Amino acid sequence: MSSNELVALGALAAACLFAAGTLFRSWRRRRSRPPLIAAVAVLGLGAAAVVLALLGVPYKLVVGPAFIAAMIAVLVSARTERGTR
Q: Which residues of the chain have pLDDT under 50?
């Protein structure tokens, strides 16, 4: 695994942790379920992507789709929470 691949995996892990932290903070403020579910989904996607890349799957096939799926989870959570107000 090259250093570029490790940097990409580190950036994905950091982005997922940041997004999950933001969602968890939103859940603590509002006590609605969508941010908590999205936080768990984002952490799961990030962890699965890192594990797959470490097992030998080319990181370009894993990092991009995992990042996009994590962004979609955050957007769906925000849209769902916005509709419940």
A: none
